Amino acid sequence: MMGSSTKALKQFLAEHDVMILGIIAAAIAILFPFFFGAPILIVILGSFIWLDRKQFKQTIAELGWVGIFIVYSLIVSAINRNLIGVLATVAVALIALFFVYYRRKLNAELYVLLLKIFCWGSIPLAIMALYQYLNYAYTHGYDMFYIFKYHNIQTRAEATFFNANYYGLYCVFAITIAIYLFKRSNFKHTKLMSLLVFLLNTVSIILTASRWLLPTIVVAIVWLVFFLNRKYALIAMVVSAVGLVLLLFNPEILPRLTTLAYAFEDRFIIWDTGWRIFLTNPLIGRGAMSYVNYYYLFVDEGKMHAHQLLIDTLANFGLYGLMLICVSFSGYLRETLSVINDRTIRSEIGLITSFIVIVLFHGLMDMAIFWLQTGFIFLVVILVPISILRKVAEIEI
């Protein structure tokens, strides 16, 4: 019995690309809590490195400027005795290695499958988030409208993510993919699933009570619709503007909007602290995760980060580090911008650039992209070669 099972396993592995199976498994695992998904991801990456052991030096070389930035981050973190920064940089290095293998093995069918995993996988997470919210509300003597009635709410939707803002960013990603799949697919079941994803994740975004997610999803939808069908982009902008006016005059419609002024006041304090940390070493920074290590120099209350993409990057890596990051991604950006008006892959370019816009816009107020789950999903979607995008545009989804 054991012998036949081993033989069947060997035959299965011989007939299938182990790395592709590993990439699919990693995409599924990343939707589980990080303490479950992260070990699986490490095991998968370890298997990739073992399979690639004969040409691993070449794999390291493929990291290019990203590899140089990783070394820079390690050195800066070590100089500043920033142990958390060293560990965070090691994690980034492992993720970077994973995506070298990802780009090697990626094909059009795999890319579409991964999009569907992230999109449709949001359905059980949305149901989980709704259950968690209702369970809290009813067990604490409230009704289902608890989140709308009270300013100091004690529960926010997180599902399998560590934080409501992280989960909310994932919901925005899922909605964006759903709109893309709805437009591209000719299959009724795909369109119905995409609609369900849109509705459930809209509810989840409301349940996260994250104020900045609402303008983020509006910007994402308008941007993507502009690429999918320009004549509808104007309609989306008008509807968004009307919705914004309604919210300005009726902030109680959505959770925590009535306390928006306090939220900005809190953010200004955090940004100021992050900026002052940057000024302590403006050229090279204090290493990754510098805010959580050096906030005490200026304020009493600690945060994990500066809640602003540029300020946090400057505090962590300084001006030299920021330049290294720009150089690392300059080739990718040039390649993407060179085909931004290519009509044959317009929908696919719209999806990728929407993800970039989402991260940049959301990064004005938060750092939710620097979490294993959200960062992984973001990189899977955007790190696709143009040659693969052309094939994606040709296949049935």
From TrEMBL:
GO molecular function, one term: ligase activity
GO annotations of cellular component type: membrane
Locations listed in the record: Membrane
Transmembrane segments: 20-51, 63-79, 85-102, 114-134, 164-182, 194-226, 232-249, 277-297, 317-333, 345-364, 370-389
Superkingdom classification of source: Bacteria
Membrane topology, record value: Multi-pass membrane protein
Domain O-antigen ligase-related: from-to ranges: 196-325
Keyword terms of this UniProt record: Ligase, Membrane, Transmembrane, Transmembrane helix
PANTHER family xref list: O-ANTIGEN POLYMERASE, TEICHURONIC ACID BIOSYNTHESIS PROTEIN TUAE
Protein's name according to its UniProt entry: O-antigen ligase family protein
Species of origin: Fundicoccus ignavus
Organism placement in taxonomy: Bacteria, Bacillati, Bacillota, Bacilli, Lactobacillales
